Each structure stands twice: as C-alpha cells, then as structure tokens.
Amino acid sequence: MPDLLAVPTLSSIQEAADRIQDLVHRTPLLQSTSLNALSGADLYFKCENFQRVGAFKARGAANAVLKLSEEMRQKGVATHSSGNHAAALARAAGSVGIPAYIVMPTSAPEIKKKAVKAYGGEIIFCAPTLEARESTLQEVVERTGATFIPPYDHPDVVEGQGTCALEMWEQEGGFDTIVCPVGGGGLLGGTAIVSKALRPEVRVIAAEPAGADDAFRSFQAKERIPMVGPNTLADGLLTSLGELNFQLLLTHVDDVLTVTDAQIIQAMRLIYERLKIVVEPSCAVPLAAILRYPERFKGQKIGIILSGGNVDLDKLPFRL
C-alpha cells in the first residue's frame, strides 16, 4: 500500500525535475492549426512520445531510482510490468549501474522484452495473470533484497511523472484546461498537483477509454472501484487506478471523460496526419475526449499530454 502521507507537492516535483534532468529529455510542445480549427480550441500537445524509452514513464522511474539510498541501490530494484515501466526502470537502473529485476508475463510483447534486455534488465518470466506477477515479484524481492518500484502508485513515481506538466507550464503558461490520460493515475496525479498549484483556476480533466472506465466510475461514486475485465485497444490504460492516485483524483481533478475505441482510433489517425508524429492509442484519448465534448473546450487554451509512442506499426488500428 502506498504511503498516503507522502503526497507529492509542487516543491517536491520541482526538486524531482532537477534530480532527473540528466536522465530525461525536455520534450517539445507542438501545435496544429488544422486541429485547432477542428476542435474550436487552442491546443498544445506535450510530446512524451519523444521521451527516453518512448514514454513519460522514464521520468517516474528515474526519480524513484535516484532517490534510493546507497544501501538500497546495491541490492537493485524490481518490478512487474509488461509495458513501458519495465523498460523505463531497467534504463534508470542501468544509468546508475545497479541491477534491475523485471518480472514479465510470457505474453508480453516482444518489443517490450527486447527493450528491457537492451537496457540491461534481468527478465524473470511468469504466467500472464496478476497473481503470478505478484507472487513471482515477491520471490524475486525475497531472493535479491531489491526494492520494489511500482509503475504508478508510489509518491516518488508520481513526483517524476509530474515533471512533464511542470515543463509544459514553463514552456507555455496560461492554460485554461489540462487534459491527461488516466490508467494507473501516476501521470494524472503529478499533472494535477503541478497544474493546480501553478494556476488554481485551471481545470484538470482526465480522459479514459469507455472499456476501462474505473477512474470515471470511482470519481462518480467517490470510492475506488477497481477495474475488472478491461476491454480497449488503449493498452497503456488497462490497469486500475492506484490508491494514492485515487486520492489525488478526488482532490485535484475536475472531471473524468470517457471515449470509445472508435473515437480513439479517429483521434490517433488525426495526430498522425496533422502533427506528423507516431503515438500509441493511449496517447490519443485526450484529443478524442476534446472532439467528443467540444462544447466543454471551445475557445479555451488547452494543454494535452501525449503519453508515449510505443506502438506496433504492423498493427496500427486505422489500418485494420
């Protein structure tokens, strides 16, 4: 369970930005005249698809690793992940010369396995179930003494993810609304903390696939409702909202909007066509929400976080 008392602040996120600056890229903020016209709003896209390991996850992993004590570093770090966090943690650990033990299901995409190996991580395979992932991780931690770095529900990880929004506000201030995708909620939590601290009147909107809408349902019910049986092509947003991040959602987020897979595909294609960049389906969820609910955003200055660009080019959804 995360330490709910160690909630990140603007100050701790600013310290994280200084801490990780040598391990991450300062990613660009792009605009598109045609997307502005289509949406009726002034859109700014923060391009974490250009980040190290191709996703914002590099930020949280780097911050968590760099905050470890020297004694903890000697024993390395461990996690279970089949996605971007696996590669991000392996890379962050390798940058400071410590071991990274990555528990991955046998069903993990080959591109993810190759990335972990390329960054020097040691992969321990397990059956493709949450129970198997957690039990295997526990065995690894007991055997090695490594520190478990979860992918999203951890204050140090949230701090790192929040540096993305901090950069965005430094690059272009005065946003009326920030729209951020939500899965486990680490990126959303960090984004909301920074944005509300810098401009209290800003609206922070979470965007989520309708087929994995636990954040939407939890926000409405004001109690955390874990996701069961998610079904969406936005594979980066399949996981349930974390406990710490649920508290940040209730405290700092103004609304949660959901979109269908068809709307995600449409928005993803528009990003490819108009911005000329490669993004994964999860990236397109915020733009899909803006296009689905244009009346909520019309005439506003909107910051959008494009979370990553790790996509199998042979399986682009608008080609199927």
How is the secondary structure organized here?
Elements: H1 10-20, E1 29-30, H2 33-39, E2 42-47, H3 57-66, H4 70-75, E3 77-80, H5 84-95, E4 100-105, H6 110-118, E5 122-126, H7 130-144, E6 147-148, H8 155-171, E7 177-181, H9 186-198, E8 203-209, H10 214-221, H11 243-252, E9 255-259, H12 261-275, H13 285-292, E10 301-306
Parallel strand pairs: 2-10, 3-4, 3-6, 4-5, 7-8, 7-10, 8-9
Antiparallel strand pairs: 1-2
Helix pairs in contact: 1-3, 1-8, 3-5, 3-8, 5-6, 8-9, 9-11, 12-13
Structural overview:
The structure is a single chain. The protein has helices at 10-20, 33-39, 57-66, 70-75, 84-95, 110-118, 130-144, 155-171, 186-198, 214-221, 243-252, 261-275, 285-292; strands at 29-30, 42-47, 77-80, 100-105, 122-126, 147-148, 177-181, 203-209, 255-259, 301-306. The chain folds into two domains: 10-54 and 154-319, Rossmann fold; 58-148, Rossmann fold. The chain is α/β, with parallel strands linked by helices and 320 residues long. The chain is globular, with a radius of gyration of 18 Å. The mean pLDDT is 94. Belongs to the serine/threonine dehydratase family. This is Pyridoxal-5'-phosphate-dependent protein beta subunit. Keywords: Lyase, Magnesium, Pyridoxal phosphate. Residues 21-308 form the Tryptophan synthase beta chain-like PALP domain.
